[in-house]
Amino acid sequence: MSDKVAIVTGAGQGIGEAIAKRLAKDGFKVGLVGRHVEKVDAVAESINAEFGADTAFAVKGDVSKRDEVFTAVEKISDKFGDLNVIVNNAGVAPTTPIMEVTEDDMEWTWKINVDGVIWGTQAAVTAFKKFNHGGKIINATSQAGVQGNPSLTVYGSTKFAIRGITQTTAKELAASNITVNAYAPGIVKTPMMMDIAHEVGQNAGKDDEWGMAQFAKGIALGKLSEPEDVASVASFLAGPDSNYITGQTIIVDGGMVFN
Q1: Which domain holds residue 162?
Q2: Count of domains in the chain?
Q3: Binding site for NAD(+): what residues are annotated?
Q4: Which residue windows are transmembrane per the record (predicted)?
Q5: I need a surface site. Which of 54, 154, 169, 181 has the fewest CB within 10 A?
Q6: Of 28, 155, 183, 215, which one is the catalytic site residue?
Q7: What is the per-residue pLDDT across 54-74, written as a single tens digit (0 to 9) for each?
Q8: Under the phi-then-psi rule, with left for phi > 0, alpha for psi from -120 to 50, and beta for the rest, what region is 92?
Q9: Which residues are annotated as a binding site?
Q10: Does 86 map to a domain?
Q11: Catalytic site residue 155?
Q12: What is the DSSP string of 225-258?
């Protein structure tokens, strides 16, 4: 995969950081996009220190804003002279009981989680066509987008939507030699997951450990996943072994949901 170029949104921590580092290990040049530039800069510096200067390039960008996504993709593809893969990873995960959901909750979450996938897809396809080849689009859905979970109506609704967008765009873009797939993490040890566990615990009058335990129940493998577990699946979807796969969601949850 030498000289391939990938972009990862939400690459400043957690799953996005792990994916960026794994793709660099796979031989990709990686562009990192995040709202907090200091976070993606730090990840880029770490990647460049391990895999060589100019392996990673960080750009500030809010995925809820179409113009910022297009600008980020253009900057990265111009920097590296190509684009082959985009990982639409950026997202937020509010935990709100159904009767407490507000208009602001819905708008904020959908603009980042769903609009971000749409804008990332549009920007990537524009770049693929500019460079006269196909490419791979990889979206972040969730176990909560495969099976409903209490207090995750807002978050889950976006992740169910992303599965649908993945299937729809896979059919629409196939003629351009572009595949579209998704990964669906379960309970991953990330800062965002710890925030979710905290909110769930607070809503129930319990502590963070109790909140995490609610999500950890029923994992067949008996343990929470690491970000690197998800990054391995993203690596597969970004590489040539997945060339004949499109429109699919790969669940990476240790055995919580079975399809």
Answers
A1: 5-185+226-252
A2: 1
A3: 13-15, 62-63, 89, 155, 159, 185-190
A4: none
A5: 54
A6: 155
A7: 999 999 999 999 999 999 999
A8: beta
A9: 13-15, 62-63, 89, 155, 159, 185-190
A10: yes
A11: yes
A12: BPHHHHHHHHHHHHSGGGTT--S-EEEESSSS--
